[in-house]
Amino acid sequence: MYYSPIILTMRLFSFQDQQGHHSLGALSGKDSSQYIDLCATDPNIPKDLLALIQSDPELTQARRALLNPRAVIHNLSDIRFTPLIHRPQKIICLGLNYADHAKEGGHARPDYPSFFMRGPSSLTAHQAPIIRPKASTKLDYEAELAFVMGKRAKHCSLENALEHVVGYSIFNDGSVRDYQRKSTQWTIGKNFDQTGAFGPWLVTPDELPVGASGLQIQSRLNGQLMQNANTKDFLWGVAETIVLITECMTLEPGDVVITGTPAGVGYARTPPVFMKPGDICEVEIEGIGILSNSIADEH
Predict the structure, then answer these.
(1) Rounded to whole angstroms, how far apart are CA atoms 94 and 45?
(2) Residue 5: its pLDDT value, please?
(3) DSSP the chain
(4) Cis peptide preceding 253, ω within 30 of 0
C-alpha cells in the first residue's frame, strides 16, 4: 500500500480484495494497471455501488476521493471483480434494438421494443466465468451497452431522460437459445445463473458522447470477431428507451437497462456457433473498455 496524487477519472467498479473484503474502486487512469480504493480513502463511502448511487447520485464522494492527494492505490491485478451492481432492483433488457439483428432472427423491423427482465442471480462479473448450464449446450453471446439509473424516473421526456443516467457499462447477455424459444416470452432463456456478464466498470456520462451514441461495439469469441456494429444504429436510443420504460414503470437509482445486441450472434450463423467450456468471450465498447469472460460448465 502506498499513497500518491491521482489523475481524476470516473471509471468505478466493484471488487473483492485478497482478504475477501468488498469495496469500490476507480481506475487511476484510463489504461492504468492501478486503482484507487475509494472506501479505504474515505470510510464514509458505501462499499456497495448501489448504495453509493442511492445515497449520492452525483457521485460527489467518489469524485472527492479521487482528488485526495493521499488516496489509497493498489494494483488492479490483486483484486477479483464482482458484478458492477450486485443486486439491482430491476434489470430491464431490450430485444431487437438493431434492425440487422431482428432480420437475422427472422423478425420484421419492430414497431416497439421487445422488453424482458433479468434477475440478479443471472449476473456474473468481469473475468469471472459465464456458466453453461447442465440443461443445454446452446449458450450464445450478445454484446450490449448497459446503462445505470442515478435518479428516480417516471414519465420522462426526451429532453430530460438522460439527466437520470449515472453511467454506462458493458453487458454480455448470455442466452440459452433452446430455452429462450420454449415459450412465447424470452425470460426463461435469459435467466440461467451466471449467464449475464456485467462490467468491468461504470463510466460517467461526461466521458462519452451524449446518450453513448456513435460508439463501436464488438464481440470476439476466442479472438475471432463475431459482432461489429455501432450504437448509432439503435432503433431506440438511450433517451427514447427511458421514455418508453417510464411510461410504464418507475426507474429507481441503481436500476440497470440493457440495450440490445447487433447482428452476428451464434445461433444465426451457418453452422450455429455456441460458447463452450474453455472459450473466452470479449465484448468491447469504444470509450468504455473490454468485458472479458471465460466459459465454464455448471457443476
Answers:
(1) 32
(2) 35
(3) -EE-------EEEEEE-TTS-EEEEEESSTT-SEEEEHHHH-TTS-SSHHHHHHH-TT-HHHHHHHH-TT-EEEEGGG-EE--SSSS-S-EEEEES-SHHHHHHTT-PPPSS-EEEEE-GGGEEETTSPEEEPTT-S-EE--EEEEEEE-S-BSS--TTTGGGGEEEEEEEEE-EEHHHHTSSSSSGGGG-STT-EEEEEEEE-GGGSSGGGTT-EEEEEETTEEEEEEEGGG-SS-HHHHHHHHHHHS-B-TT-EEE----S--GGGSSS-----TT-EEEEEETTTEEEEEEEEE--
(4) no
Q: Which fold has domain 91-297?
A: Fumarylacetoacetate hydrolase; domain 2 (3.90.850)
pLDDT in tens, 72-104: 999 999 999 999 998 999 999 998 888 765 566
Q: Map 213-261 to HEC letters.
A: CCCEEEEEECCEEEEEEEHHHCCCCHHHHHHHHHHHCCECCCCEEECCC
The residues near 240 (Cβ < 8 Å, ≥ 6 apart) are 158, 161
Cβ contact 44:52 at 8 Å: no
The single residue listed with the C-alpha cell 422488453 is 115
Residues 6+ apart with CB under 8 A from 153: 161, 164, 242, 246, 250, 251
Question: Where are the domains positioned within the chain?
Answer: 2-81, 91-297
d(CA 290, CA 126): 9
Query: Nine-digit cell at 217?
Result: 461495439
Residue 157 has pLDDT above 80, yes or no: yes
Q: Angle at the Cα of 179 (from 175 to 182), degrees rounded to 5?
A: 135
